[in-house]
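>> Question from a student workshop board

For tomorrow's exercise we were told to take the sequence and the ligand below, predict the bound structure, and bring the output to class. My setup keeps failing. Could a helper post the expected result so I can at least see what it should look like? The ligand is magnesium ion.
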Amino acid sequence: MRKISIFGATGSIGQNTIDLIRRDPDSYDVVALSGGQNIAQLAADARALNADIAVTADEMRLDELRAVLLGSGVEAAAGAAAIREAAARPVDWVMSAIVGAAGLAPGLVALEQGATLALANKESLVTAGQLIMGTAATHNARILPVDSEHSAIFQGLIGEDMAAVERIIITASGGAFRDWTLEDMARATPEQASSHPNWNMGQRITVDSASMFNKALEVIETKEFFGCAHEQIEVLVHPESLVHALVGFNDGALMAHVGPPDMRHAIGFALHWPERKTLPVERLDLAKIGALHFREPDLQRYPALRLAHEVLELGGHAGAIFNAAKERALDGFLAHRIGFLQMAEVVEEVLTLLSPSHCRKNAEMTLDTVMETDHLARKTADQVMQKLA
Ligand code: NAD
Ligand code: MG
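>> Workshop helper replied:
Here is what the output should look like for this input. Compare the format with yours to find the bug.
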């Protein structure tokens, strides 16, 4: 039996992970599950999987969690420190599926225990790539990417030499506003931005898909995880979301990863790696699909993509600034405080304000320096939004 923990268990990735675990319960000994506001789901899963401990991020809801777990034998805990403590419990495999920068600390703690980290929380690599890769190396821990594009790249690189890689192409569906005019995008509401044409995901990443901030995070994630130059990373709009990524080699070959838009593929790949096991995902009928389309993204409509390359040029803590400013701008958009296109304006302004002091390339990076930068960027984003409003 493999010991596993799932952080962000109540979210979209967490629930897909639990779906796979529950199909084969005898293979897994579940140690910790974490969630946020959905106490009922967290408790139900903790009971069903017979977890040792269930942790909610919300300290105010500890009593409620305790009450619903009464008699189950599952320990209840709450708060960010309790999540980190749960992440320190020894396991073989950890799913990191908290959304946002809050996912960084528990992932680092899990790596320090030498656990294999299935990393859905792309914000970890964006805010602290050097730190998280360094921690994995120091503790001989493995990181397996769970973002669909990065799982696809990882699979395309099996048995290959990075020196032979010329370019890495990640695809983007184009999100909810793929075919909208700029004028319409400027007036878009959170409700309109919260539905995705192909994928069923959490609300925040769905809105980030419409703005391509998600793809911008993924460009940074690609650079940090695979260690390529940022000039080697390309983004292609691919409305069908069936080709997730392509790796281009020095002999002109392109290795494409093709699969249904179902996160259980990338999660299952990371769960079973280095083996491949049968997964309950749709088998594609390419003859029925007929055609796949690709086009270049319009950088005017998607300034986030340009900003991603600027972040990688800047280096240092630019990723932490970018992510934190993006998270606050997204909060502002969801609260109807700023418009859809203003999210990129806010992020760009925060980068301009903070990069002179926070983007030294050889600056030391620790969890503290990252969280300080994150905090400052959030505060600065709030000030920028106040001026805009
Ligand atoms: P979600 O919103 O559905 O779930 C987020 C989870 O994190 C929930 O369990 C929630 O309770 C928890 N959480 C939220 N704020 C927290 C905090 N401050 N502290 C602790 N826990 C907190 O999100 P999701 O779509 O499952 O995405 C999770 C991560 O995976 C994100 O980083 C996202 O970018 C990445 N990802 C998701 C998908 C997808 O298909 N959903 C695909 C690729 C990558
Ligand atoms: Mg992705």
